[in-house]
Design brief:
- The protein is an alpha+beta fold.
- About 50% of the residues lie in helices and about 15% in strands.
């Protein structure tokens, strides 16, 4: 039996405005507070590929929000795709268990998941009301990311590095355990061949799944350079169509290295801002935008046919330079009177190598320093061994020494120590 419709707030637009005015870090809690009277729930999770550093926005019960994974949310999105809104699952796999959830999708490909909802049927008008709210919130998230402040970009890059390190640590730990299991189960000393073969198949399948989780996380945090450029072209289409500006796009090679998500977002935002600044300059009616990638940096070149009097102090360009500086890039403006202005932007694709400053009590050997630098970059044991021409066992030996000398208990803490000293 359908539940009685829940009255909507007297000023629903004010309530929605209060949610979308929140920062990206606070938007989930505000949305949960707004929706809880309509659909009681214990936790709310947003999954959006627009935020590469923090694709999850969460609020509510710790036992849910601290354990939900990207793989679970990705599977939920696939299951909810094409179903009527909202998609309801009585026992969805989330946070390592089975929970009743309600899933709302958005045009941005983001999903809203309400976890541990009560058993009452949600009235149609309430569902439609929530769906409209969610569409606005999802669009707001995309817009906030597109115009993110330098501080958010910095936080996003640090979060991306932290996620990469944790995934690497998790992959190493599970792969080692599963490889050991395979060695034992393949041993002729064990009986019951059928059971052993079954266990081998399970372990091998688990290894494939684990690698798949790592690969999926990497795909969420990167964007092919050519698709990033096409998104820029789409972003500028209204200005080209209605602004009377002739824009020539020179795309990067289709086979260029994928861009970290925060670099792709920043590059598009900087170019959009630069084009708007150029379009306001005297005599500008043509702009040329070129992207290239040298394997280590995204290179952006923007030229106009104006008076050539733009400088780094031109209104609108200073903030763009600040966004580039957060990502350790460079932003230069040059002009030739009567020939136009040129903006050149370089954005590194990799986080700068951290400066290690270990306390005297934990003095490191040169090889331990080498291992620690590679750990901070998110490299796994196998990759570290290959880079330093040592075995994986030797890498593990050095990691154990690093943990002992620094007083840390995990690879993640080692990386945090490096990041703290770098800051």
């Amino acid at each position: 039996m359908a539940a009685a419709p829940i009255p909507h707030p007297n000023d629903p637009l004010d309530d929605v405005r209060a949610v979308i005015s929140q920062s990206l870090l606070g938007i989930a809690a505000a949305l949960s507070d707004l929706l809880r009277p309509m659909v009681p729930h214990d936790a709310l999770v947003i999954f959006t590929e627009d935020c590469t550093g923090r694709p999850q926005k969460k609020a509510g019960a710790a036992q849910i929000v601290e354990h939900v994974t990207i793989a679970e949310l990705d599977a939920l999105r696939a299951d909810a795709s094409g179903l009527p809104q909202p998609a309801r699952f009585d026992a969805a796999a989330i946070a390592g268990g089975a929970h009743p959830v309600v899933v709302f999708t958005a045009d941005t490909n983001a999903i809203l998941v309400l976890v541990d909802v009560d058993g009452a049927t949600i009235a149609d008008d309430t569902s439609a009301h929530i769906a409209r709210i969610w569409q606005l919130v999802a669009l707001s998230i995309r817009q906030q990311v597109a115009t993110a402040s330098p501080s958010y970009l910095q936080d996003s890059r640090l979060a991306s590095r932290e996620r990469a390190s944790l995934i690497a640590d998790l992959t190493d730990a599970h792969a080692t355990a599963l490889e050991s299991l395979l060695v034992v189960l393949r041993s002729p000393q064990h009986g019951d061949a059928a059971a052993r073969q079954r266990a081998i198949d399970i372990a091998a399948g688990a290894m494939v799944t684990l690698r798949g989780v790592s690969d999926r996380d990497r795909l969420l945090s990167e964007e092919p350079v050519h698709s990033a450029f096409e998104r820029l072209r789409d972003d500028l289409a209204p200005l080209v169509r209605h602004g009377g500006l002739d824009v020539e796009f020179v795309p990067p090679p289709a086979t260029g290295r994928p861009l970290p998500g925060e670099v792709a977002h920043a590059a598009r935002a900087v170019v959009r801002g630069a084009v708007l600044a150029l379009s306001d300059a005297t005599g500008v009616d043509r702009v040329r935008i070129q992207w290239d990638c040298d394997g280590s940096n995204l290179l952006v070149d923007i030229r106009d046919n104006g008076a050539g009097d733009l400088t780094a102090e031109t209104p609108g360009l200073g903030q763009l330079a600040a966004r580039v500086a957060v990502l350790d890039g460079s932003f230069t403006v040059a002009g030739t009177s009567g020939w136009g202005s040129q903006l050149q932007i370089m954005l590194p694709l990799d986080v700068a190598a951290p400066v290690i400053n270990v306390p005297e009590a934990g003095q490191l050997t040169p090889r331990e320093r080498d291992v620690l630098v590679l750990l901070a970059e998110g490299a796994r044991n196998k990759a570290i061994g290959a880079a330093l021409t040592i075995s994986e066992n030797t890498v593990k030996f050095h990691v154990a020494n690093l943990l002992h000398k620094t007083g840390t208990t995990s690879r993640a803490q080692l990386v945090a120590l490096v990041a703290g000293n770098a800051g």
